[in-house]
Automatic annotation (TrEMBL):
Primary location: cytoplasm
Residue ranges, annotated region (Disordered): 1-65
Skewed-composition ranges (Polar residues): 24-34
Organism lineage string: Eukaryota, Viridiplantae, Streptophyta, Embryophyta, Tracheophyta
Signal peptide segment: none
Record's compositionally biased regions (Basic and acidic residues): 56-65
Assigned protein family: Belongs to the Rho GDI family.
Name of the protein described by the UniProt record: Rho GDP-dissociation inhibitor 1-like
Domain of life assignment: Eukaryota
Source species: Camelina sativa
Length: 224
Protein backbone atom coordinates (compact mmCIF):
# COMPACT_ATOMS: atom_id res chain seq x y z
CA UNK A 1 0.00 0.00 0.00
CA UNK A 2 3.01 2.27 -0.31
CA UNK A 3 1.72 4.90 -2.72
CA UNK A 4 3.17 8.31 -3.50
CA UNK A 5 2.05 11.45 -5.27
CA UNK A 6 4.74 11.28 -7.94
CA UNK A 7 3.53 7.89 -9.08
CA UNK A 8 -0.04 9.11 -9.56
CA UNK A 9 1.13 12.27 -11.32
CA UNK A 10 3.11 10.03 -13.65
CA UNK A 11 -0.06 8.11 -14.50
CA UNK A 12 -1.91 11.29 -15.29
CA UNK A 13 0.80 12.52 -17.65
CA UNK A 14 1.52 9.16 -19.23
CA UNK A 15 5.06 9.10 -17.83
CA UNK A 16 6.74 5.98 -16.47
CA UNK A 17 7.85 6.07 -12.83
CA UNK A 18 11.49 5.74 -11.87
CA UNK A 19 10.58 2.56 -10.00
CA UNK A 20 9.19 0.97 -13.16
CA UNK A 21 12.17 2.17 -15.21
CA UNK A 22 14.51 0.55 -12.72
CA UNK A 23 12.66 -2.74 -12.95
CA UNK A 24 12.71 -2.71 -16.75
CA UNK A 25 16.47 -2.10 -16.74
CA UNK A 26 17.03 -5.02 -14.42
CA UNK A 27 15.06 -7.29 -16.74
CA UNK A 28 17.14 -6.50 -19.83
CA UNK A 29 17.90 -9.23 -22.32
CA UNK A 30 21.49 -9.55 -21.17
CA UNK A 31 20.48 -10.00 -17.55
CA UNK A 32 17.95 -12.72 -18.42
CA UNK A 33 20.29 -14.68 -20.69
CA UNK A 34 22.47 -17.18 -18.79
CA UNK A 35 26.22 -16.91 -19.26
CA UNK A 36 28.82 -19.63 -19.03
CA UNK A 37 29.73 -18.39 -15.56
CA UNK A 38 26.09 -18.66 -14.49
CA UNK A 39 25.93 -22.24 -15.74
CA UNK A 40 29.12 -23.08 -13.85
CA UNK A 41 27.62 -21.57 -10.71
CA UNK A 42 24.54 -23.75 -11.14
CA UNK A 43 26.74 -26.85 -11.21
CA UNK A 44 28.57 -25.72 -8.07
CA UNK A 45 25.43 -25.01 -6.00
CA UNK A 46 25.39 -26.62 -2.60
CA UNK A 47 23.09 -29.61 -2.43
CA UNK A 48 21.20 -29.32 0.86
CA UNK A 49 20.03 -32.36 2.77
CA UNK A 50 16.39 -32.98 3.72
CA UNK A 51 14.73 -30.77 6.30
CA UNK A 52 14.59 -32.23 9.79
CA UNK A 53 11.75 -31.62 12.21
CA UNK A 54 12.73 -29.03 14.82
CA UNK A 55 11.63 -31.33 17.64
CA UNK A 56 14.09 -33.95 16.42
CA UNK A 57 16.88 -31.37 16.25
CA UNK A 58 16.16 -30.14 19.78
CA UNK A 59 16.10 -33.63 21.26
CA UNK A 60 19.24 -34.69 19.45
CA UNK A 61 22.34 -34.43 21.66
CA UNK A 62 20.17 -33.03 24.48
CA UNK A 63 22.59 -34.41 27.06
CA UNK A 64 25.44 -32.33 25.64
CA UNK A 65 25.36 -29.09 27.66
CA UNK A 66 27.50 -27.07 25.23
CA UNK A 67 25.35 -28.07 22.23
CA UNK A 68 22.17 -27.32 24.16
CA UNK A 69 23.39 -23.80 24.96
CA UNK A 70 24.50 -23.24 21.38
CA UNK A 71 21.02 -24.23 20.11
CA UNK A 72 19.39 -21.88 22.62
CA UNK A 73 21.57 -19.02 21.38
CA UNK A 74 20.72 -19.85 17.79
CA UNK A 75 16.99 -20.53 18.18
CA UNK A 76 16.07 -18.73 21.38
CA UNK A 77 13.85 -20.39 23.95
CA UNK A 78 11.53 -22.65 21.95
CA UNK A 79 8.27 -23.86 23.47
CA UNK A 80 8.11 -27.61 22.71
CA UNK A 81 4.31 -27.42 22.73
CA UNK A 82 4.53 -25.30 19.59
CA UNK A 83 6.89 -27.72 17.86
CA UNK A 84 5.47 -30.50 15.70
CA UNK A 85 6.76 -33.78 14.35
CA UNK A 86 6.90 -32.54 10.74
CA UNK A 87 9.62 -30.23 9.31
CA UNK A 88 7.30 -27.65 7.75
CA UNK A 89 6.77 -24.37 9.63
CA UNK A 90 3.25 -23.06 10.20
CA UNK A 91 2.67 -19.31 10.02
CA UNK A 92 -0.73 -17.81 10.79
CA UNK A 93 -1.26 -14.12 10.07
CA UNK A 94 -3.62 -12.97 12.81
CA UNK A 95 -4.38 -9.36 11.99
CA UNK A 96 -3.30 -6.24 10.15
CA UNK A 97 -3.39 -2.89 11.94
CA UNK A 98 -3.29 0.52 10.29
CA UNK A 99 -1.92 3.20 12.63
CA UNK A 100 -2.29 6.89 11.89
CA UNK A 101 -1.84 9.96 14.11
CA UNK A 102 -5.08 11.33 12.60
CA UNK A 103 -7.38 8.64 13.99
CA UNK A 104 -7.77 5.55 16.17
CA UNK A 105 -6.07 2.34 15.08
CA UNK A 106 -7.86 0.26 12.48
CA UNK A 107 -7.52 -3.42 13.39
CA UNK A 108 -8.35 -5.66 10.43
CA UNK A 109 -8.88 -9.32 11.26
CA UNK A 110 -7.68 -11.73 8.59
CA UNK A 111 -10.56 -13.99 7.45
CA UNK A 112 -10.01 -17.72 7.03
CA UNK A 113 -11.19 -17.72 3.40
CA UNK A 114 -8.87 -14.85 2.39
CA UNK A 115 -11.79 -12.64 1.30
CA UNK A 116 -11.91 -9.68 3.71
CA UNK A 117 -15.00 -7.99 2.27
CA UNK A 118 -16.28 -9.26 -1.09
CA UNK A 119 -19.11 -6.67 -1.16
CA UNK A 120 -17.05 -3.52 -0.73
CA UNK A 121 -13.76 -1.93 0.36
CA UNK A 122 -11.95 -3.56 3.27
CA UNK A 123 -10.99 -0.15 4.62
CA UNK A 124 -10.87 3.54 3.72
CA UNK A 125 -7.83 5.74 4.23
CA UNK A 126 -7.64 9.53 4.04
CA UNK A 127 -5.62 11.16 1.27
CA UNK A 128 -2.32 12.75 2.30
CA UNK A 129 -2.32 10.99 5.68
CA UNK A 130 0.63 9.34 7.38
CA UNK A 131 0.14 5.70 8.31
CA UNK A 132 2.01 2.63 9.51
CA UNK A 133 1.21 -1.04 8.90
CA UNK A 134 1.54 -3.49 11.77
CA UNK A 135 1.45 -7.27 11.30
CA UNK A 136 0.67 -9.74 14.08
CA UNK A 137 1.38 -13.39 13.34
CA UNK A 138 2.14 -16.68 15.07
CA UNK A 139 4.80 -19.24 14.17
CA UNK A 140 4.51 -22.90 15.18
CA UNK A 141 6.00 -26.30 14.34
CA UNK A 142 9.37 -25.16 12.94
CA UNK A 143 11.54 -22.15 12.13
CA UNK A 144 10.31 -20.01 9.24
CA UNK A 145 13.20 -18.53 7.29
CA UNK A 146 13.03 -15.25 5.38
CA UNK A 147 9.36 -14.43 5.91
CA UNK A 148 8.45 -11.49 3.70
CA UNK A 149 5.48 -9.33 2.81
CA UNK A 150 4.55 -8.76 -0.84
CA UNK A 151 1.87 -6.27 -1.80
CA UNK A 152 0.65 -5.20 -5.25
CA UNK A 153 -1.88 -2.42 -5.88
CA UNK A 154 -3.91 -1.61 -8.99
CA UNK A 155 -6.16 1.28 -9.93
CA UNK A 156 -8.57 0.89 -12.85
CA UNK A 157 -6.65 -2.21 -13.89
CA UNK A 158 -3.23 -0.49 -13.98
CA UNK A 159 -0.54 -1.53 -11.50
CA UNK A 160 0.44 1.53 -9.49
CA UNK A 161 2.56 0.04 -6.72
CA UNK A 162 4.51 -3.10 -5.81
CA UNK A 163 6.11 -3.55 -2.40
CA UNK A 164 8.34 -6.33 -1.05
CA UNK A 165 9.52 -6.17 2.55
CA UNK A 166 11.55 -8.66 4.58
CA UNK A 167 10.05 -9.42 7.99
CA UNK A 168 12.73 -11.84 9.19
CA UNK A 169 13.34 -15.38 10.44
CA UNK A 170 11.29 -16.63 13.39
CA UNK A 171 11.29 -19.66 15.67
CA UNK A 172 8.11 -21.22 17.10
CA UNK A 173 6.67 -19.64 20.22
CA UNK A 174 3.35 -19.36 22.01
CA UNK A 175 3.18 -15.56 21.89
CA UNK A 176 2.44 -13.85 18.55
CA UNK A 177 5.15 -11.84 16.82
CA UNK A 178 4.59 -8.23 15.82
CA UNK A 179 6.36 -6.36 13.03
CA UNK A 180 5.92 -2.62 12.44
CA UNK A 181 6.57 -1.34 8.93
CA UNK A 182 8.12 2.08 8.13
CA UNK A 183 5.77 5.06 8.06
CA UNK A 184 4.31 6.00 4.70
CA UNK A 185 2.02 8.71 3.31
CA UNK A 186 -1.00 8.20 1.07
CA UNK A 187 -1.13 10.22 -2.14
CA UNK A 188 -3.49 13.16 -2.44
CA UNK A 189 -5.32 14.99 -5.17
CA UNK A 190 -8.06 14.28 -7.65
CA UNK A 191 -6.17 11.49 -9.42
CA UNK A 192 -5.26 9.76 -6.16
CA UNK A 193 -8.78 9.51 -4.78
CA UNK A 194 -10.87 6.52 -5.69
CA UNK A 195 -11.03 2.75 -5.37
CA UNK A 196 -8.00 0.45 -5.51
CA UNK A 197 -7.63 -3.32 -5.68
CA UNK A 198 -4.75 -5.11 -3.97
CA UNK A 199 -3.18 -8.50 -3.42
CA UNK A 200 -1.16 -9.20 -0.28
CA UNK A 201 0.99 -12.30 0.20
CA UNK A 202 3.23 -13.62 2.96
CA UNK A 203 5.90 -16.03 1.68
CA UNK A 204 9.20 -17.47 2.93
CA UNK A 205 12.62 -18.18 1.41
CA UNK A 206 11.26 -21.36 -0.20
CA UNK A 207 8.47 -19.29 -1.76
CA UNK A 208 5.91 -21.11 0.36
CA UNK A 209 2.82 -18.91 0.66
CA UNK A 210 1.20 -18.70 4.11
CA UNK A 211 -1.49 -16.19 3.19
CA UNK A 212 -2.80 -14.58 0.02
CA UNK A 213 -5.66 -12.11 0.24
CA UNK A 214 -7.33 -10.05 -2.47
CA UNK A 215 -9.27 -6.97 -1.47
CA UNK A 216 -10.24 -3.41 -2.34
CA UNK A 217 -9.72 -0.17 -0.43
CA UNK A 218 -10.61 3.48 -0.96
CA UNK A 219 -8.64 6.71 -0.70
CA UNK A 220 -10.97 9.61 0.09
CA UNK A 221 -10.95 13.20 1.33
CA UNK A 222 -11.78 11.98 4.86
CA UNK A 223 -11.50 8.77 6.88
CA UNK A 224 -15.27 8.16 6.72
Amino acid sequence: MALDDEKNEGEASGETSEKEIGLSRQNSQSSLSPTEDDEDDEDKKLQLGPMIALKEQLEKDKDDESLRRWKEQLLGVVDLEDVGETPDPVVKILELTIRSPDREEMVLTIPEDGLPNPKGPWFTIKEGSKYTLVFNFRVTNNIVSGLRYNNTVWKTGVKVDSTKAMLGTFSPQAEPYQRVMPEETTPSGMFARGSYSARTKFVDDDNKCYLEINYTFDIRKSWQ
